[in-house]
Design a protein that fits this description.
Largest sheet: 6 strands, parallel
Number of domains: 2
Strand content: 15-25%
Strand order of the largest sheet: 3-2-1-4-5-6
Number of helices: 12
Order of helices and strands: EHEHEHEHEEHHEEEHEHEHEHEHEH
Distance between the termini: 42 Å
Shape: globular
Number of strands: 14
Length: 314
């Protein structure tokens, strides 16, 4: 069992979906008495602001990263517990903790077991949320049932910013948000639904609600040219994005980070998958309608029916 109020450094992963799916495990560690010191991408601070956990921005160079980890580890007690939890599976992340002299728990992966104080096998063929949940169980030395929902908390300032955006652009709370983007690929296959643009221009407009798109950096041109009928909100931070989602009637999303955020705040989500394996990466929670996956894209009429169901129950 853990010592109450024990500091714990946690290196987050580099993708929005991964960080979102790790939230239940982080909440569990905090409830068990760990004072979390998170290290991750700059956007993680905004995304997790509602939880009050300090987030240090991951420096670019190895030297700077080791220096930061050493600083965070100063004053730690020399008991038998761990100083750090490493969520990434890369060799370099384990090396950074080793060079910083921290007792670290992480997955035995890519030949890095000797760099970690304790290396546990990475589970196979389970959902990514469960991967992080089991890593937390290893740290706490105690199993627990999987959570029904992610439970991402919203910061008051993000609710205020979302309300101001809606007022400035005349957007009703029960709008439709779309995320037609998808970072990365699945087994070298594009995760972007081929019918998304036609669906947004046709079927979605028939619901008589504002259709809103919030492109990330570099996605603005796609939103402008392929989704001209949608209201584009540029430069929206992830915390404010999450607050907008919490008030939406429904979100329609590819297999990508904002879809996980929608599910994490309990927003009705129509998750459109193609090549991805839903058993490993579906958005987690009771508000999710999953369509397609494992190499098959859904038909537009099925997506339209799912949106209608979500709106009817909102």
């Amino acid at each position: 069992m853990t010592t109450p109020h024990r500091p714990l450094i946690v290196r987050l992963r580099n993708w929005v979906g991964d960080v979102t799916l790790a939230v239940p495990m982080l909440q569990r560690l905090a409830a068990a008495g760990h004072d979390l010191q998170l290290v991750g991408k700059g956007w993680a601070r905004d995304l997790l602001a509602g939880h009050g956990w300090p987030v240090q921005v991951l420096p670019k160079t190895l030297r700077e990263r080791v220096r930061l980890l050493r600083q965070l580890g100063q004053g730690r007690t020399r008991d038998a517990g761990m100083d750090a939890l490493c969520l990434p599976d890369s060799f370099s992340s384990a090396l950074e903790f080793r060079l910083a002299g921290l007792r670290t728990l992480g997955h035995a992966w890519e030949g890095r077991s000797l760099l970690l104080t304790r290396a546990v096998p990475r589970p196979r063929d389970v959902h990514e949320l469960e991967v992080y949940w089991r890593l937390g169980s290893a740290l706490l030395q105690q199993d627990a049932p999987l959570p029904a929902a992610v439970g991402l908390r919203l910061a008051p300032q993000h609710r205020q910013e979302a309300a101001a955006l809606r007022q400035a652009h005349g957007i009703e709370p029960g709008c439709i948000l779309i995320c037609p983007f998808a970072g990365g690929t699945w087994n070298q296959q594009d995760k972007t639904w081929p019918g998304f643009a036609d669906f947004a221009a046709g079927a979605l407009r028939g619901f008589g609600r504002s259709v809103v798109v919030c492109p990330g950096p570099g996605e603005e041109a796609i939103a402008r040219t392929q989704f001209p009928s949608a209201l584009m909100l540029q430069g929206v931070g992830l915390g404010t994005y999450a607050a907008l989602l919490s008030e939406a009637a429904v979100m329609v999303s590819n297999d990508t980070g904002p879809g996980h955020i929608a599910a994490a705040v309990g927003a009705p989500l129509v998750s459109v998958m193609g090549p991805s394996d839903p058993s490993l990466w579906r958005p987690w929670g009771p508000s999710v309608q999953l369509l397609g996956g494992n190499g098959a894209w859904p038909e537009a009429h099925a997506v339209q029916a799912a949106v209608a169901r979500a709106i009817a129950t909102r």
